[in-house]
Amino acid sequence: MEKLARKNKTKFLWSNDTFKEFIDACLLELKKGYRSGTHFTRAGWENIVKTMHEKTGVILDNKQIKNNWDVMKIEWKLYDCLMRIEIGICGTRSSIDASPEWWDEKIKMILFQELRASIKLIQARVSRSFKVHLRKV
After folding, report:
1. pLDDT per residue as tens digits for the range 83-112
2. Which residues of 76-86 are buried (b: 16+ CB within 10 A; e: fewer)?
3. Which fold has domain 12-97?
């Protein structure tokens, strides 16, 4: 019954304001020491849910909060990686600001990897066909 209700729940869209409140709530729990390893403790998550409700008026469950945390970690890793290779990210968090030369190099690298994968696939198919043909002979 609970799973059915969860499936019908609409997805929460994080605005910049609610995202900022989420960051502030996480930092508050971090300062209180409610984090062990890469995630918060149970009490820390509960406090974040409570703080989000108090600050935004939105009621979120633990799964929504944890999913946002996980997505934020992935975005941070990407951002950190991009900053280390000397390109930038535009202020909207939605586009990469890099030189045309950088893009040309990345596109060439991706095309080369795709070409190499295609060649391996063709070689595997030819090899299988050849083996089947040899069995028939």
Report:
1. 666 555 555 555 666 778 877 887 888 888
2. eeeeeeeeeee
3. 1.10.1200
